[in-house]
Amino acid sequence: MCYGASCIMSNRNAWKVYEPPPPKGEPLCVTTGIRRIVTTDCGPMTYHGTNTWLIQTETGTIVIDPGSDHPGHINSILNATGGNIEYILITHWHADHYGGARELQEQTGAPVAVHKNSLANEQLEIIRLEDGDVIGGLQAIGTPGHTLDHICFATQNGVLFTGDHIMGWSTSVVPPAPEGNLRLYMESLKLVLSRKDALLLPAHGPPLHEPQLVVRALLCRRIERLDEIRALLTKRPLTLDALALRAYRLADKHKHEAVRLTLLSHLEELARLNIARCVEEAWYLN
């Protein structure tokens, strides 16, 4: 199976980047003109919480991913920016990224910018972005996969805000269509790999200073996982739950549904490659 990447990984976790729990609700300087506020609320799939990124411009602040609508977090953003917000940019429609957009817009009047196919609420003042559009000096980079409306935002000096597309502490959940797509996710990883950015700033977890190492490892891990799942398939029927028990360690019950969705997206990719097939909710090796 070939996706255009060399995937010899002696230590499959060597690429991971962790951090101790950062201060919540405080603007933390990451690099010149860029600050990070970590949400005060977090869940089992968000590591220490969602990163809201604040990019200083000559006339105000651009906010990327305002997080949930938790009042404490919204107040932290308002206090850090003085309410002078030019744009609210959304990497994708999930509530831990988009949920606070309405309140922040009501408080500041800033327009909300999303992917053109986003499921964002039309009651907001919304700018719909095409791949390659520039807004507030940031370029929208279409990176579908985790969701079909996922976009990253690139500065002119080698910084890429990656949302949930690329993180250092974990691989991303990639659900099957119509919400996500594994093939598109892997193509989006290759797109970022080709860009040669110097710094990746994800929506969960710490900044990533070795983008090539991390992105190549994420791509390799998906290829390895496809091969592992293919090796589990036989000519005898196996249900999705049976395959999940064999393919993943489900120690955390909160991650069970995420595992099932990710497994299904891998199976659908194997089906697209004519390696697997599904008959009456059972999976077989072709």
Automatic annotation (TrEMBL):
Q: Metallo-beta-lactamase domain: which residues? A: 49-204
Gene3D superfamilies assigned = Ribonuclease Z/Hydroxyacylglutathione hydrolase-like
Keyword Acetylation applies: no
What are the names of the required cofactors? Zn(2+)
Kindly give the InterPro entries that the UniProt entry links to this protein: Beta-lactamase_class-B_CS (IPR001018), Metallo-B-lactamas (IPR001279), RibonucZ/Hydroxyglut_hydro (IPR036866), Sec-metab_biosynth-thioest (IPR050662)
Signal sequence region: none
What PANTHER family does the entry give?
A: ENDORIBONUCLEASE LACTB2 (PTHR23131)
Name it.
Answer: Beta-lactamase domain protein
What organism does the record attribute this protein to? Komagataeibacter medellinensis (strain NBRC 3288 / BCRC 11682 / LMG 1693 / Kondo 51) (Gluconacetobacter medellinensis)
